Amino acid sequence: MGSGVVEELVSLGVEADIGDINKERAQNVAQSLKPAADVGVVKVDVLSREELTAAVKKYDVVVNAVGPFYRFGYVVADALVKAGVNGVDICDDYDATEKILGLCQEALDKGVTFVTGLGWTPGLSNILAKKCCEMLGGEVDAVDIGWFGSAADSKGLAVVMHLFHTITGDVPIYLNGRTEMVKAGTSPMFFEFPKVGRLKLYYVGHPEPITIPRHLRVLERVAVRGCLVPQWQNSLGKMFVKMGLTSSKERLERLSRFIHRIEDVFRAGGLELSGVKVVVEKGVERVSYCSVGRMRKLTAAPAALGAYLILKGELDEKGVYPPEAVISPTPFLGRLEGVGVTAAKQ
Questions:
Q1: What is the reported pTM?
Q2: Which of 259, 278, 293 is at the close of a domain?
C-alpha cells in the first residue's frame, strides 16, 4: 500500500521520499520509478520516537502506511502531531482510530491537518456514505457498508494481522443512537457486487461505525460487514478464532506469521479483485454506490489525493478528522476517477 501511495503521489507531480525500516527494499521501489521520478529514501524505525520525529520534520505532509494500525497507527499519528507535521493515514482498525481522533485538540493547537482512515475502507467507504446521505437530504436512517477482499489481491503480514483483528471478539456498530459491541462474524447480510455477484458478508471490526455517526446524521444504524473470496476462507478464519488462535496479540501474530509464510496457497485460484459497497436508506428511499478494483489502487489513490490536497492548501482544516468530516465527496470522487478509481451508483 505504501509503495502504491508513492506511485500515486509522483503521478500527481509531488516530490516524495520513502521512509522505511528496510532501506534496501525502499530503494528498490524508488529505483522502479525511474526515470519518471526521482524518489529519495530515508531509513526510519517508527518505534524509535527520536528517529521518527527527526525524519518527519523535514516534510510538509507525511502519509503513514505502516500496519497493522492497532499497533502502529497511534504511535505515528502522535509523533506527527507533536512534531507539527501534517499527515494522512490509511488506519483501518477501530481501536486505533479512537485513539488517533483523541489527538484533535493537540493538532488544532499545533496547526496540524491530519486525516485518518483515508484509504479504501475506511476512506472511500466514508466518502461514498457522505455522498449518499447528501443525495437523500442529509438525515438518513441507516448506512450499511460491505466489502470483499481476496488473498490473491493483497500481500503483506500487516494485512493478515489486520484481518484476524477484525474478526476476533466484539466489534463496534452504531445502533439507535449509540455505539454497541457485537460479536464479529455474525449477522450475515448479502451484498451484490459487479464481477463477483452475490456475497454473504459478516460483521467486522472497522472504524466507520465510530466516525460516521459523529459527522453524518444517521438515526438508526451504521454497520460494516466484510468477507473474503473464495468464501471457504471465511469458514477457515472463523475456525481459527474459535480455536483461540487469535485470543491474544501474541497468538494473533504467531498465526498471522504462519499464514503469511504460506499465503500463496490462499492466493491460488483467487480473484485479483476487491470491492466496497455503501447502501444508505431513508424510509423507503435507498441509494447505493460501489467501487471494485485492485485493493492497492483503491487504498493508495485516496490517501495520495488527500496528501496532495493538504500540500496544495485545498484541505486545510486543522485538527484530526476522518474523511467524511473534511472532504467534499463529489469533487473528490471526480478527481479519483481521473486517476483510475471509479464508483458507480447501483
A1: 0.95
A2: 293
Q: Please count the structural domains in the chain.
A: 2
Burial 84-110 (b: 16+ CB within 10 A, else e): ebbbbbbbbbbbbbebbbebbeebeeb
- Answer yes or no: do 164 and 214 share one domain: yes
Q: Which amino acid is at 109?
A: D
Angle, nearest 10°, between helix axes 329-338 and 295-311?
A: 120
270 in Cβ contact with 152 (< 8 Å): yes
Q: Are residues 273 and 309 in the same domain?
A: no
State whether 36 and 183 are in the same domain. Answer: no
Q: What is the pLDDT of residues 34-47, one digit of tens each?
A: 988 999 999 999 99
Provide φ and ψ at 59, rounded to 5°: -120, 155
User: In this predicted model, what pLDDT tens digit does every residue of 316-334 receive, in sequence order?
Assistant: 999 999 999 999 999 999 9
Distances (CA, A) of 270 to 10, 88, 273: 31, 31, 9
Rg (alpha carbons) of the chain, rounded to whole number: 19
Statement to judge: residues 114 and 259 lie in one domain: no
Burial profile 5-19: b = 16 or more Cβ within 10 angstroms, e = fewer: bbbbbbebebebbbb
Range of the domain at 43: 2-120+297-345
- By the 10 Å C-beta count (0-12 exposed, 13-18 middle, 19+ buried), 177 is classed as exposed
